Amino acid sequence: MKMMANWPLSLIGKAQAAIIFAAFGSCASLAQTPAPAVALVPVATGLSNPWAVAFLPDGQFLVTERPGRMRVVSASGQVGPALTGMPAVATGGQGGLLDVVTDTDFARNRRIFFCFSEPASAGSSGGGNSTALARATLSADARSLQDVQVIFSQRPKVASALHFGCRIVQAGDGNLFLTLGDRYHRKDDAQKLDNHHGKIIRISADGASLPDNPFAKQPGALPEIWSYGHRNPQGATLAPDGKLWMHEHGPQGGDEVNQPQPGRNYGWPVITYGENYGGGKLGEGTAKAGMEQPVHYWVPSIAPSGMAFLTSTRYGAAWQGSLFVGSLKFGTLHRLELQGGKVQREEKLLQGSGERIRDVRQGPDGLLYMVTDSPQGRLLRLQPS
């Protein structure tokens, strides 16, 4: 892909006139506010289907590539060689090496967590694959992963190359949330508590289930489960108040933003604002007693991936506190303005970029960073100009 210069403000789209209040399915018009002056700056190019970016000391970046490689990118944008020590990864379709985060105490322990599609172990009769979460130590020279240990494996493994989920969030207490897809062919599993398909789980940094999880004492339920009824969640982050937010792909329409509460059922595949591929009703409708409504949804789908709350004022006070969501389908960056836990306004940025936004993170410098999913993917910074 030809490297582009800084993108001017003319490529940053204006606010939409209509705002979807997803919880009610209604619209209201709000006055437009000027967007900050920003430019899209390439930090690194030539990445192979990058999936996630994490931040290292001295301005360096840790980037995963879906084909199964993890690389360090220098502050000047130099892409390093693939780190050694990576476990076996089941690549193909949507599978591969996916999310990565640094431990909140990385400066002391150099620990990272990453998730990937894990093949069946050698000699296993079941076959298939699943989402797995591993922890490792990044070597002092940042060239290898050491002490690699898989601390969680989704079960059961199934033969599918779709819907792995696989976003990691470390909470303030050090415990981990991991989003898990329904594996596409097993969507009905999302309503059952005896499996990990279509779930969010919560575990310790050592991989142990936590005694205060909502189903820890329920017979027949897997104790790691935090919430269920999800489809394919590829975005998750903590809000400034420390609460977990996430989004998930709908089928044909009905992508959702949710604020998952412990033990709650988020409806898939019983309720959805989407429909079957090619058209036709899916499930029982858009609402049912005992199932949660999304905070926000999109029809048609934007194919969301990656999300981040902006806590800094690097773009001015107007954007502070907003939730940013990337779009794979349109290559747009969506800014959701929140009030009282509800979306009051949506603004589409980067219209016409033509690149699939796979991850969105706020860096230590308070700026937003993204990776774009293509065989010549890029690491980008949204720079105030």
What does this molecule look like?
This protein is mainly β and 385 residues long. The chain has one helix spanning 106-109; strands spanning 18-21, 26-29, 38-47, 50-55, 61-65, 69-73, 79-82, 97-102, 111-119, 129-138, 145-153, 165-170, 176-180, 199-203, 225-228, 232-238, 244-249, 255-258, 296-298, 304-309, 323-327, 333-339, 342-349, 357-362, 368-372, 377-384. It has a single domain (9-384), classed as 6 Propeller (Neuraminidase). The strands form 7 sheets. It has a 4-stranded antiparallel sheet with strand order 3-26-25-24, with no helix packed on it. Strands 4-5-6-7 form a 4-stranded antiparallel sheet, with no helix packed on it. A 4-stranded antiparallel sheet has the order 8-9-10-11. The chain is globular and about 50 Å long. The two termini are 24 Å apart.
What brief labels describe this structure?
385 residues, mainly beta, Neuraminidase, four-stranded antiparallel sheet, 1% helix, 41% strand, disordered N terminus
